[in-house]
Amino acid sequence: MANSLWLLIHIQKTVVAIGNIIDVWGGKVVDFNDIKTLLNNGIAPSTSVTATKIDGLFVEDSIYIENRELIGDFLRSKSGAKIIVACNHLSAHGVEIDEDFGGRLVTIDKPVSPINLYPVLAAETDIGLDPLIGADTSAMKNLKGAWVLVVDDNRINREVAAGLLQSYDVEVVHATDGSVALECLRANPDIALVIMDCQMPVMDGFTTAKNIRVGAGGPHHKNIPIIAMTAGAMAGDREKCLQAGMNDYLTKPIDADSFSKKIALWLRPSPSVASSSQEAGAVAGISATSSDRSADKAKGSAIWDRDGALRRLNNKGSLFRKVIEIYIETTPLTIDEMEKTISANQMDSFKKLAHQMKGISANVGAVAVSATCKYLEETCHNTDFDTSNRYWKILKQDYEDVIYLFKEYLLIKG
C-alpha cells in the first residue's frame, strides 16, 4: 500500500480513524472537512502528489447520500479510483450502488477498525499486509503527555497495561468498572484512548462502550478510540466488540508486541501533560522454609511459564515482580470464594470465579492454575459434583505450588 493516496471527507471523528490506520500501513491520507473544499480547491500542494494518483475516496454515509452526484462527478474524473462509504447499520440502505461506478463503490461498517477495514483495502488495493504488520511502534516515542484510561476490575490486568504504557511517558488513569470509567471521561477531556475489559461487575465493557458512543462520557469523548480486552478469542467476541462500538481488541494475557502495535495505531498525543494516576502494590514476604516443597525444573515449568510471562511483559523485570506481588496479595480471596461456592454447590458463581482466576493466572504465567480453571469453567455445569470437586482439589494444589514458586523467585530477586 506504500505511496497510495486516499482522500477522506468526514464530519465525525470516528471515521478519522481510517486515516490513522492507512498511515500505519504506509499510505497517505488527505483530510477534508467537506466535499465543497475538495471540489473547489483540489488537493493541497503540500501533499507532494498529483491528483491523478488518487486511489480512492472515503466518505461518511450522510455526506455521500447528500452529495452523491458531486462525488460521482469527481470520481469519474479520476480513473480507477474507488469510493468507500463508512455506514452505520441503519443508514446502509440509503447508500445506493451507482452502476456507472462499475463496482468501484463499497461500504464498510462503523466504527472503523483494522479488523473490518483490512478486507476492504486488501480487495481494492495490493496492500498485502496483515492488519497489524507495519504498525510503527517507534511513533510511540512521541506520545509523551497522551492520556489513556485503563478499565478493568482486576488489578493485575490494570498494572500490566499501565506498566507497558509507562515506557512511552503516557499518563494512565485507572477505573475498576464501566461506571467509574464514565466518570473519569467526563472529568478529563484529555483522555485520548480507552483500553477496557469486557467482563466487569457493575457495568461491563460492552455496555460502557455503548454509553460512551451516546455521550455518557461527555460529548467530547463520543468518538474516542476504544480497545477491548477479552479473556480469549471466543467465537463472536470480535463481532460483539465492534457492535458495541469498540474499535479494536486485545486478547489476554496481554502480549507486549501486540499491545504496542495497537497503541501505536490508535493513540494520538494529548494536548496537555499532567500527572499519571498509579496504584501502589504491597510487597508479599516469605519466611525461610526447607526445600522439600521446592519443585524441580521440569515440574516448575509445567506449573509456571516464567519465561513466557516475562516475555509478554517485554522483559520488564520490575513490572513482572510487581504483578507477581499483586497476585500473591489478592488471589487468596478469590480462592476462598471459590471454596465457599463449590462447597455450597453454587456453580454459577463458581464458574464466574473460575473465569476470573483463569485470566489473571494466565497473565503471570501460572499455566497449571489457568488450565485447571479453564476446565472447571467449561465443565462445572456438565459434570457431577464429585468430578468438579476432584478438579477443585487439583486446582488448590496447583495454586499452592505456584505461590511457593512466586515467593521463591521474589526472595532470590530481592
Explain what this protein looks like in three dimensions.
The protein has 414 residues and is of the alpha/beta class. It is 47% helix and 13% strand. It has 16 helices and ten strands. The chain has helices at 13-24, 35-41, 61-66, 68-76, 114-124, 155-166, 178-187, 205-213, 237-243, 256-266, 297-303, 306-312, 317-343, 347-363, 367-379, 385-413, and strands spanning 5-9, 28-32, 54-60, 82-87, 105-109, 147-151, 171-175, 191-197, 226-230, 248-251. The chain has a five-stranded parallel sheet with strand order 2-1-3-4-5. α13 runs antiparallel to α14 and α13 runs antiparallel to α16. It is elongated. Residues 44-52, 127-137 and 270-300 have low confidence and may be disordered.
Q: How many DSSP-defined strands?
A: 10
Described by strand count, sense and barrel closure, the largest sheet is: 5 strands, parallel
Instruction: Please count the helical segments.
Output: 16
Q: For the residues shown, what is the average pLDDT?
A: 74
